[in-house]
Every structure is written in C-alpha cells, then in structure tokens.
Amino acid sequence: MKKIVYILVAFAFAFSSCRKDEVEAGGTNVQEMAGEFWVQANDGDDSFYKITTFNTASNSSTQMWLKEEDYGYQTLVNVNLTDGTFSQPNGTDITGGYIAKPIVITAGKIVKNGTKAPGSGVPTDLITFTATFSNASGNNQVTYTGYRRTKFLSDDH
C-alpha cells in the first residue's frame, strides 16, 4: 500500500513540474526595418552584398545598427519607423578597432513590398541608401539598392 501511495505522489509531482506557461517573447521596436538584405552598389561591380539591420541593445525605437559586409562597416543609424527612413549624418564605423572612422548614411529608405525578388519573383521589401566613408582606397560614396532576403535559394547570392 505504501508503494502505491509513493507512486501516486511521485506522479503528482512529475506532472505538476512539467506544466509550462507559454512566454510571449514579443518583438523588437525596429523589427519592421530589421533584417538581411541583398544589395548592389554603384561601384562598378555587379556583385550582390549583404546588408544587415538590427536592433540596439537598448531596443531603441529611434536607432538601429546597419552592417555592410563587403566594404566592412557597421554604424548606428537614426530611424523613422513611420515612413521607413534612416540616416546618420555623423556616424562612426565601429569595425576599426581603436580607430573610429567617420561614416555618413543618407537617403536611407525601406519600402514594404517595394520590389520583387529576382529569382522567386515574390514581393519583398526594397532598401536603398547612400554611404560616404573612408577606407584604404580613399573616400567613397556608394549608393546601394536591393531587397530583403527571402531565404529562397533562387534569391540568395
């Protein structure tokens, strides 16, 4: 009889400890503008470059990070969530280690379903902006235009 009582008590503890409440994780304040983008630059190369935009650690609704993986810069940009624009008149490229390099981002805009992905043809967000920065080859001004990554293989580069 004692064994049955112990087994019933053990089952009661086992099932009560397995109860899990679902947690609503929510999103970030800039989730509509955050993501991965494939872009082309007006730098004479037809290659696609990856741009990543993502929220700040403080989950700001007025700033987000912009990271470019070809020229290799990353900076905070000011965002306007209402009209999907972003810019940074006095930015700093944080990828330079101890040497902060100036960078200026102008005319940044993300248009919801503003274009179609080249391979799949599905509607996706359009991104465009101009970056002015310095690197080993001197001062550069590059205008980027591209689309939000769809994760279809035919759209990846």
Tell me what the structure shows:
Helix content is about 10%, strand content about 50%. The chain is mostly beta strands. The chain has an eight-stranded antiparallel barrel. A hairpin with a 2-residue loop joins strand 7 (about 125-135) and strand 8 (about 140-150). The chain is elongated, with a radius of gyration of 23 Å.
Q: What's this, in brief?
A:
With 157 residues, the protein is mainly beta. Helices cover 10% and strands 49% of the residues. The mean pLDDT is 85.
Task: Count the beta strands.
Answer: 8
Widest β-sheet, arrangement of strands: 1-2-3-4-5-6-7-8
Helix content: 10-25%
Tally of helical runs = 1
Q: Can you summarize the main beta sheet?
A: 8 strands, antiparallel, barrel
Oligomer: single chain
The value of Rg in angstroms is 23 Å
Distance between the termini: 68 Å
Structural class by helix and strand composition = mainly beta
Shape: elongated
* Strand residues, percent: over 45%
